[in-house]
Amino acid sequence: MQKWVYALPLLALMSGHFARAADVVAGEAKAVLCAACHGPEGKASVPVYPNLAGQNAPYLVKQLKAFKDGQRKDPMMAPFMAALTEADMENLAAYYAGLKQ
User: Fold this and answer.
1) What does the alpha-carbon distance between residue 94 and residue 88 come to, in Å, rounded to a whole number?
2) Would you say 81 and 67 are in contact if contact means Cβ atoms under 8 Å apart?
């Protein structure tokens, strides 16, 4: 019984470190704004804008975070990134990763 008393605080600390599952439906809803440049299916019709469909989700999250924190600068992306939460980024990435290239 005493072992559980010592284990409970450790379990409580660790619970915050488990990854939450991304919400693809929420990502699709957020992607409506992205479609203007990246296409409704994540395939841009203008070569200047990258295709997002089928990209690796961790890569997309990394790039979105880089835009948000200013490591990547783009005047078109900045206003969209300002409002995104980390969960939004994960959801968007999961949505685009699930689309066919």
Assistant:
1) 10
2) yes
Confidence of residue 56 (pLDDT cuts 50, 70, 90): very high
* Separation of alpha carbons 98 and 24, rounded Å: 8
d(Cα 89, Cα 76) in Å, to the nearest integer? 17
Token pair in block for residue 94: 């999961």
Residue 55 phi, psi (nearest 5): -70, 155
- CB 91 within 8 Å of CB 22: yes
CB contact at 8 A, 92 and 34: yes
Q: Which two tokens stand for residue 89?
A: 């980024």
Indicate the pTM of the whole model: 0.78
Q: Are 22 and 90 in contact (CB under 8 A)?
A: yes
**Strand, helix or coil for residue 64:** helix
